[in-house]
Each structure stands twice: as structure tokens, then as C-alpha cells.
Write a structure and sequence with these properties.
mainly alpha, Four Helix Bundle (Hemerythrin (Met), subunit A), 65% helix, globular
């Protein structure tokens, strides 16, 4: 979406932010990002038995997890410690982080769990199509409506809004005065975001798949694609 377009603009700020962490290993930074995101998922699930106010630390943890997720690559690049092993580990941690956050939100009681499942599948397909291009010998696919940086920023923003009880009644799933409930409709800020994840994720995944397929050489004459 927009985060990739602003990558060059934020590069100087990212360089300054990475300075205190140049002595850290990139893998350690990736592990910190995973820990923050898993903690965010656990706290999101705990909202079901505690209070919606817990979405505030969830929002902060997702944001900080996204910062460390960017820092690991920046530190690796600046210190010359980029490696295939580190890149693989980063992708593995990212997928577990995605699952932890969305599953935690699904348990929170503030989203439709089926919608959360569909959105999660869409997010995983988006990431898969990006790495699959790399697996067949092409460059990694980063483009599309929904990159990882986009979804972390949007999740942090949506969970922050969800904790704010001053939002209009229609956003509150338990609000008895909501006119939406007269029609059997209840939705939250995060519900709306997950719908976007579902649609934009599929658009991004299919777009990446099509670009990868077109970039691959055609099969030799007389053969068929497997």
C-alpha cells in the first residue's frame, strides 16, 4: 500500500533509529519483534476476560514489534551481516507473529472469528506469493495493496481505536443503543480492518502470482506446464 512508497523518505530516520542496535545481531532483533507480537496476541486474547482497555498495550506492542521487524534488516544491511539463514529466520518469525496477533484478536470477542480466520488465510497467502517468487529464482515480490508493514501499522491503529470507548455507538459490539443491532448487525473497528485485509490481501496475493507467472520463461515447445 503506502509504506513501500515512503521507504526512501523514512530511510534517514531509520538509520538514526538503528544506531543504538548496531551491536545487536539481526537474529536477536527478529526474536524481539516476535516476542513483542506474540505478547500482543496473548493480551488481545485476554481482552475477552478483562477489559477493552487492554487493546491499548496491544496497539503499542504491535507498533514496537513492527519497529524491531524493520530494524533487523536495517542492522543486517549496515553491519554487513545479511545472510540467507537470517532472511529465512526472519520470514519464519514474521509468519508466526502474524498468526499470533490475528488469533489473539479472534479470541478477544471484538471480531467475528470466521472473518478473522479468512483474513489470516489471506495474509498468509500474500506472504507466500511474495516468497514463492523468490523460490522459483525471481526477486522477492513486495508490491501490492497490503505489505507486512502496512498491516502492522493498520493493526496498531485499529486496536488503538478499539480501546477508545468514546467512539460512536455503532462501533461497540455490546452497545444496546446501536441502531445497527435492530437489523442484527454488529461490527467493530477491527472487523472493518479484517474485511480490508481479506479483500486487499487476496488482491495482493493474486497480483503477485500473476506478475511472477508472467516473469517466468515459457515452457519449451511441445511441453506443458506441470
Amino acid at each position: 500500500m503506502v509504506s513501500e512508497e515512503y521507504r526512501d523518505r523514512v530511510a534517514p530516520y531509520l538509520e538514526r533509529l538503528s544506531r543504538p542496535f548496531l551491536g545487536w545481531s539481526p537474529d536477536r532483533l527478529s526474536a524481539v519483534a516476535l516476542g513483542l507480537n506474540v505478547t500482543a496476541g496473548v493480551l488481545a486474547a485476554a481482552v475477552r476476560w478483562t477489559s477493552v482497555y487492554l487493546f491499548l498495550p496491544v496497539s503499542l506492542l504491535i507498533f514496537l514489534g513492527g519497529v524491531f521487524d524493520v530494524l533487523d534488516g536495517e542492522v543486517a544491511r549496515r553491519t554487513g551481516r545479511q545472510s540467507a539463514r537470517g532472511d529465512f529466520l526472519d520470514h519464519v518469525f514474521d509468519r508466526y507473529a502474524d498468526v499470533a496477533i490475528v488469533l489473539g484478536i479472534a479470541v478477544s470477542g471484538y471480531v467475528n472469528p470466521i472473518l478473522a480466520l479468512l483474513a489470516l488465510v489471506s495474509l498468509l497467502l500474500t506472504s507466500y506469493m511474495g516468497t514463492q517468487a523468490q523460490a522459483v529464482g525471481l526477486g522477492r515480490q513486495y508490491g501490492g495493496l497490503l505489505t507486512r508493514a502496512d498491516r502492522l501499522l493498520l493493526l496498531a491503529f485499529a486496536t488503538f481505536l478499539e480501546f477508545d470507548l468514546s467512539l460512536p455507538w455503532p462501533w461497540d459490539p455490546s452497545a444496546p443503543l446501536s441502531h445497527w443491532h435492530a437489523y442484527g448487525i454488529a461490527f467493530t473497528v477491527i472487523d472493518v480492518l479484517l474485511v480490508y485485509f481479506l479483500v486487499a490481501g487476496q488482491w495482493t496475493a493474486i497480483g503477485r502470482a500473476v506478475r511472477t507467472y508472467r516473469a517466468l520463461p515459457p515452457p519449451p515447445p511441445g511441453t506443458t506446464s506441470s
